[in-house]
Amino acid sequence: MVVRFNWSAFKQSRWYEHAVRLGLGGLTTALTGAVAQRYDPATAGLFLAFPAIFCASATLIEKHERMRKEAKCLQGARRGQQAAALDAAGAGWGSIALGVFGACVWWLAPAFAAGSLCAAAISWLVVAVLVWVLRRRLRRVGSS
């Protein structure tokens, strides 16, 4: 699979779908700020990792795939579920890299704050690419 940006996807979605994503992301961030004020920033940091827009994105992916198939007079429910499941699997794999990012910041921030973000970002990128390569290889082994 080649990763690419699909400009035509903007034509497939409505303005309110983007508003839902933005609203859920903003609500999660605001609630995290409230947790930080009530408890402490370390506790609130756990909530920042919550995939605020994942739920909205998964339902939108399912809806768009289903509509695309139904426009061709085909049953689209199964395809929509499969597309949402594939997105969920990718989010799960991506959370491994997010965990590595958080661990790097947690371990390195007391010693050097700015450097910890750079090291964490590099660690995230390396782990994300390695997980992607591992997933591709496991998929090839499973299909042969």
Word description of this protein:
With 144 residues, the protein is an all-alpha fold. The chain is 81% helix and 0% strand. It is built from six helices and no strands. It has helices at residues 9-12, 15-38, 41-48, 54-71, 77-108, 113-143. Helix 2 runs antiparallel to helix 3 and helix 5 (77-108) packs antiparallel against helix 6 (113-143). It is globular.
Please report the total strand number as a whole number: 0
Strand-residue proportion = under 5%
What overall geometry do the principal axes of the alpha carbons give?
A: globular
Total helices: the number is 6
The gyration radius over C-alpha positions equals: 19 Å
Give the biggest sheet: none
Spatial gap, N to C terminus = 17 Å
Order of helices and strands: HHHHHH
Throw out a few tags for this protein:
single chain, 144 residues, mainly alpha, 6 helices
